[in-house]
Amino acid sequence: MNYKKIFRSQQLRFEILHLLRWVPDSWMLPLQYKIKLGRWPNLKSPKRWTEKLQLYKMYYRNPVMPRCVDKYEVRKYIEEKGLSEYLVELYGVWENANDIDFNSLPNSFVLKTTDGGGGENVIIVSDKTKENLQVIRNKLNSWLDRKNVNAGREWAYTGIRKSQIIAEQLLVNVKYPEAGVEDFKILCFDGEVKYIIVDKDRYINHKRNFYSPQWKRKCVTTDHEQFEDYYPKPENFEKMLELAHELSKDFPFVRVDLYNVCGKIYFGELTFYPWTGYVQFSPDSFDFELGEFMDCSSFIIKK
Known about the structure:
This protein has 303 residues and is α+β, with helices and mostly antiparallel strands. The chain has helices at residues 3-6, 10-19, 25-37, 49-59, 65-69, 73-80, 133-143, 237-248, 285-293, and strands spanning 90-94, 109-113, 122-125, 165-168, 183-189, 192-200, 207-211, 217-218, 253-261, 264-271.
């Protein structure tokens, strides 16, 4: 069921979810899973990764996680890990878009709210002289503090102190600037890298491939088609795996997002609930394969 076609207004969807905030996670998450994927999850004896992610949202409570999902606070977390060299340059942070002095910013940059997720609440400015700055301000302010409606019941986001706005360096694809840089999303379980997702041409013809740590392509699709052309193993690939291990070893699962531009590695974000756990893999067996890597025994509450 595509509920977005039924309730086309995002604001209306948020209002409905806000009214349903009293419904416990143990009821709401299976219902959302059923609506999204057309099947009920097995949460008593989960085998699928998507099922285990629902339990992850429901029960796993690591106090570090809210810092890690806040796009400003995570920078401090990375610095504390001694990995500040991998951070994208920060130009500024504000609590209101009306306080942004665009004259102090370079000609190109990225604006985002600190509590956005799933690629949402991001504005890419390639040439600020061609932008309506007031429209940008209005849009950013409309996004502030939207996480008071936790649509996917993603616990980590509920601990974010306050929604803010940050401006960061715009990373550029040297060969195809309009396509955006490739995004390496590294699936890690207890610090072990199991798969690397490569998102390519995100802004023109978004496609996605899965690779093993040995850089063997896995024939898997999600909500985007695979790209068939040969994609070489990135420069400094082993260093990327080391960085992913260091950032993921404290969690049963986390996706470590990195960029690799002209051989330089940049940190992107840490994602604990990819696709909110509502993703249909093809083949379906891949859901079970990922599920084998995730051990829920340390945090599942048995009644």
